[in-house]
Design a protein that fits this description.
Six copies of one chain form a homohexamer. Chain A contains six helices and nine strands. With 237 residues, the first copy, chain A, is α+β, with helices and mostly antiparallel strands. Chain A has a single domain, classed as GHMP Kinase, N-terminal domain (Ribosomal Protein S5, domain 2, 2-Layer Sandwich). In chain A, strands 1-2-3-5-4 form a five-stranded mixed sheet. Chains in contact: A-B, A-D, B-C, C-F, D-E, E-F. Chains A and B meet through β3, α1 and β5 of A and β3, α1 and β5 of B. β9 of chain B pairs antiparallel with β9 of chain C, so a sheet runs across the interface. Chains A, B, C, D, E, F: Homohexameric ring arranged as a trimer of dimers. Chains A, B, C, D, E, F: One of its GO terms (molecular function) is 3'-5'-RNA exonuclease activity.
C-alpha cells in the first residue's frame, strides 16, 4: 500500500487555478496535492538575438523554488550566485515541452517566458510545472488573440506531464516526496493531448529496470496524463 | 484625491494569513492590497561562524521577487547570478528590524532565517515583508517553545512597517505602486508595538523636503503602524 | 564626555582639498578627522542605455574601501568577486544625493561618474563621501563649462551629509568609529545648502529610539551640515 | 539512406584505447567515429562532506568540451565563468550511469572522479563518454585492487550508452552530427551488460513520437549497446 | 646528472603533429616529452570591438588544462567559475608571442583564436603551447590563403619557446616537472626564427641569480629554440 | 630626447613616505613622478591552509587601481566581479618579489598581506609597488619585532624594481606612460640590494629585440635599482 493510501494508478488531488496574477498575461496556480507551483506567462516584444527578423517567435521557461518550499531550507539560488544543474535541467525540459505544441511561426515575432516557481514542494514539481505552464501559456496566447496580436492557431495541442515509479516493487503513478525518495525507478513522461510522446526520462535509482517495467510505467503515465488533459480542458471552459 | 480613492491616512486592505507553509516552522502570507508576500521562518541549528559558542542566536532575512511579480517581467536574480543592490538593501533592513525586537540570548544558539518572497507587487513590498515576517518569526519561536527549545521570552515587542509619501503635495499613508511612482518624497518607517522607532528611511525623489513635511509623514506612519500591530495581535489570538 | 573630547555638536576637523588627481575632470580629497576619502568625478560621453536620446544626462557614484582602510584588513571586493550589500547601499545613496541637486537636462547627454574611495576609515565614510563628492562634481561641471559643454546652471544647490547618534544617552554630531561602535542609535542625514532634506536614514542599533531623540539628532545634523556647506563654499572660492 | 552510408542498425567505428594518461589511475580514449572523448578516472582520498564516516564511497563525473571540438568554435566555459545547462545535464547523467553499476560500500571511503573531455565532437558525445568512462573507472578500481585498497567486487556490471533517432522517418542507431541535427526524435539509452535499463531520455525534436516508434528505438539501442559491451570486454582482456 | 639522463643542453623528444582536428582551420598536437598540448587555430569573421573598421586583424590565445593532466587532479576551472591567475598569465603570453610575428594589417579584418589545451602535463606547458601554436596558426593562415582571404605574407617569422633553469647549480635546457620543482631559477624564453627576442621571463625560485647565470640560460635557450624552429620547418614541408 | 626631458639613465623624482596609514602595521606611499601607490602591510595571525602547522609564515600581495587612476576611467574590478589578468599577473609578481628576500621560517606562523593600491598612474605602477611594498613590509616586521613576535632577522635583503625600455631606438630608464605607450621594448627588472636578480620580464612590443639591447636595459636597471635601494635605506634611517 502507498503511504498516501492512493491506488497505484491514482493521481493526487489536482487543481488548476487560472488568473492568479494581477500582472501576467497568463497565469495558473497548479496543485498536485501538496506540491504547489505558480506559473506565469509573460509576453515580451523581443525575441532572442538568433531569431531576429525570422518572423518566428519563441517560448522559453524558467524554474525556481522558494528556499523553504522544501522540508529543509535550501540556499537561495540568487544568493548562491548560480542556478543548480537540477534547476537548469528542469527549466530546459519545461521549455522544450511547451515548444512541442506551439506553432512558432503562427506566434509571430514575440517571446513568451513562462516562470514556474515552486511555492511548496512535495515531489513532482517538474510535472506539475509543465501541466500548469500549458494553462498559463494558453491564456497568454488568448490575451494576444483578444488584441489581434495573433490570428492563426498557435497552440497545436495540450501538453501535460506526470511522474511514475516503481515503489516497493509496484509501478505507481504520480509519486509524492515520500514515495519518490524510496522508489527504485523514477520516470517522467510528457505527452500531448492526442497521446503523442514529447519527452521520456527514466532513471534507475537503484537496480536497473526492465523493458516490461518501463512499459508498465508508460501505461500508467498515459492514463494519468489523459486525466490531466481533461482537467486542463475543464479549467479553460 | 488618491488614485485608490483612499483617505490620506488610510491603509490598503491588510491581511495576515498564518500557517500557509506545510514545511516552515512559522509562515505568514501578508497582503497589503495587491502586494502579496509569502514570509517563512526556518529554524536552523547552526549559527553564523562569528557567533559560535557565544550562547546567542541570530535572526536573518532574505528577500526575493518572483520575476513576474511586477508589471513588467524582471530578470530572475538566480539566472543573472547576483542579487541587486535593492534586494540586498531590503533584506538587510528586514533582518535589522526583526533583530530589534528579539532577545538573542534568550533565543539560544539557533538561527532563524526569514524568507520574504514577493508573489505579487504593487508598492510597499518591504513594509509588507517586515509586517508579515514578524508573524512568521513569532510562530517559529512558539514552535520552539512547544518543544522546550526556548524557555524565556524571546520576542520583546511587535515590529511593523509602513511607507508614507508626499503625493501631489499631500502627505499620504501606505503608497501603492501608482502613488509611489509619482510621489515627490518617499519614506519608510519601522516602529515597534510600543511606538519606538527602529528604522527611518526618507528619500526626496525630486525636490528636497522640509522638516515639517517629514513630521507629517512620521505622524501618519505612527497611526498606520498602530493599526498594523493591532492586526498582528488579532492574527495570533 | 566623548572619547574624542569633542562637544556634542562639534564636527571633527574637516578639510576639502581640490585638484588632487592629475587625470580626473574634478577631484577632492575629503577628510573628516581620520576618515579620508578620495572623490573623483569622471566625465563620460555616453549615458546609460535607458537614457539615450532623451537630451538628459546622468550622475552616478561608486564607492570602495581599500582593504586596509580599516582597523582589521578586509577582503578586497575585487578578489571576492562582488560588492557587499553595504557597499551597494552606500553607492546608491551617494548617487541619489548628488542627483537631488543636479539639473539633468541642463547637464545634457553626458554621464558623470563619481568614485569615492576610502583611503582610511574612522567612521562616517558615507557622509564624508557625499560632502567631498559634491566638490568633485562641481569642478567637473566647471571643467565642462570652460569647454562650452554646458551653458545653463547645472548644480541647483549644495549637498552635504553628516552622521549623528545617541552615545551614552546623549545626542552627538559626526560619530567617529569608536563612538559609532558604541552608539545606541545611528542616523545619517543628507541636506542641501538651503536646508532641504534629501535623505534621512535612522537606525536603532539596540533599543528603539523616540521621536524626541530623533528630533534632537536632526537638529544637530542641520547645524553640522550648515558648517559643511560653508566649508564647501570656502573651498571653491 | 543515411548520410554516413551506414545501415540503420550500424554503429560508427568504435575504439576504446586504455592507458592513455601518464597520471590517471584509469583512462580511456573512446572514439565513436569522429567523436573522440578522453576519459580519466582519478582516485581521491576524500569523499563529499555529506558521505563522511559512512564507510561508503562515491563516483562522480565531470564533462567538458574543448572550444574547437565543434564545427564552430564555442566560448570556453572557464572563461565564460560557468558551465552551461547542457554540460551540467550531461555530467550528472554520466555520474548516475556509473553509480548504477558500482557497489559504493565495496568501494570504501574513496571518491573516484571521472573526467570526460571531448577532444573532437561529431554527435553522441554523452554516449561515448559513458561508454569510455566505464573502462577508465574499471581500470581505476583495478589499480586500487592491486594496492589492496579494495578487496570485494566493486563493479557489478558493465554500463554503456548509445543514441538512436528517427531520421527521415526511419529509426537509426548511433546518430552522428549531421543526422542528429535533422532527426525528428532523439533518444539516449544507458543499459547494463545484462540488459538492464539505467537511463532513458527521449525527446521529440519536432512532432511528438508514438509508442511504437519508441519501441523501435529501444530495440536498436539494445542491439547497439550489446555490441559496445562486447567491445568493452575485448578492451580489458 | 639530470633525472631524465639528458645532457644539460638537450631537449626532450619533440614532435609536432599537424591536422589533428577535423574542424579547426589549423591544428597541431605538440609533444615535449610527456607534455602534450593540443593547439587549434580557429578563424572568426569578427574582430574585437575596439578594432572594428580598422582593416586590421587580431590573434588571441586561450589556455586550459584538463583536470587530470597533472599528477594530482586539479579542480576544473569551468566548474570553479574562473580562470586562475596562472592560466590568464599563460594565455596572455601565448597571444603576445604569436602577435609578435604576425602582420595584423596583412591579416585583414579577421580574428584567429588559438586554443592551447594541455592533455598531459610534465613541465613546460607554456613553451610547448607557443611552439605548437605557431604551427596551428600557420596552417590556419594557409587555409585562408587557399581561399584568397589573405594575399600578402601574414607570418613574418617563426616563433618558439623553451624553458631553462638552474638545476642543482647547473644551467639546463627544457625542464621537465621533476626538474622544474627543484630548480633554483626558472626562465622562459620566446624567440623568433631569426633569433630576435620576443619575451623573457626569469624568476628566482629561491636565491636570486646572477647576470652570468642568466646569460648561460639565454645561451641554452637560443640553442634549444634554434632546434625547435628547425622542427617547425620540417613539420610544414 | 625623452618627452620628460630626463636623461636616458635618469629616474623620475622618487619619494617614499612611511607611516601614512593609521591602521596598517607598515605602510608607505611611494611616488615615481606622477605614479602614486599606497602600500600597506597587514599582519594576520593565520597562514594559508596548505602552510598550517609548518612553523613557517607567508607573504602575499594584492594589487588594485582606483578607477580614475588613469587618463580614462576604467571599470571598477569589484563591480565587474573579477580581477583582470593584468591585475593578477602584477600581484603575483609583487608577492614573489617580496618572498625572495624574506626568511619565511624566521617569520614564524604569520601571514603578511601587502596591498598595493594605485592612487594615480603614469606608467611603472608595478615597479613602484614593489619598491614601496618593501618599505611597508619592513615596517610591519619591525612592528612585530617591537612586540617580540619575531626575534631572528626576517628580511634578508632589500628588493626594488624598475622598468626600462627602448624608446625611439634608445634604451631608457623608468618609463612614464607616454614613453611606455611608444616604446618598442619594455622590460621590468626586480633586483635585490646586493644586485641579485629576482625577476626579469622583457617583452617586445613591436619588433623583437636583440641580446645586446637586452644587456643595455639590464645595465640601466642595475643603476636605477641601486639608486632606489639607496632611497629605501634613507627612508628607514
Amino acid at each position: 500500500m502507498r503511504p498516501s493510501k492512493r491506488d497505484a494508478d491514482e493521481l493526487r488531488a489536482v487543481t488548476l487555478e487560472r488568473g492568479v496574477s494581477k500582472h501576467a498575461e497568463g497565469s495558473c496556480l497548479v496543485k498536485f496535492g501538496d506540491t504547489h507551483v505558480l506559473c506565469t506567462a509573460s509576453l515580451e516584444e523581443r525575441v532572442p538575438p538568433w531569431l531576429r527578423g525570422q518572423q518566428r517567435g519563441w517560448v522559453t521557461a524558467e524554474y525556481g523554488m522558494l528556499p523553504r518550499a522544501t522540508g529543509e531550507r535550501m540556499r537561495r539560488e540568487a544568493s548562491v550566485g548560480k542556478q543548480s544543474g537540477r534547476t537548469q535541467e528542469i527549466q530546459r525540459l519545461i521549455g522544450r515541452s511547451l515548444r512541442a505544441v506551439v506553432d512558432l511561426e503562427a506566434l509571430g515575432e514575440y517571446q513568451i517566458s513562462v516562470d514556474c516557481d515552486v511555492i511548496q514542494a512535495d515531489g513532482g514539481t517538474r510535472t506539475a510545472s509543465i501541466t500548469g505552464a500549458w494553462v498559463a501559456l494558453r491564456d497568454c496566447i488568448e490575451w494576444m488573440r483578444a488584441r489581434d496580436m495573433v490570428t492563426k492557431p498557435v497552440l497545436k495541442d495540450h501538453v501535460a506531464a506526470i511522474s511514475c515509479g516503481i515503489y516497493k516493487g509496484t509501478p505507481v503513478l504520480d509519486l509524492d516526496y515520500v514515495e519518490d525518495s524510496a522508489a527504485e525507478t523514477d520516470a517522467n513522461f510528457v505527452l500531448t493531448g492526442t497521446g503523442g510522446i514529447v519527452e521520456i526520462q527514466g532513471t534507475a535509482e537503484g537496480a536497473p529496470f526492465t523493458e516490461d517495467e518501463f512499459a508498465a510505467l508508460l501505461g500508467l503515465a498515459k492514463k494519468g496524463i489523459g486525466r490531466l488533459v481533461d482537467l486542463q480542458k475543464m479549467s479553460i471552459l
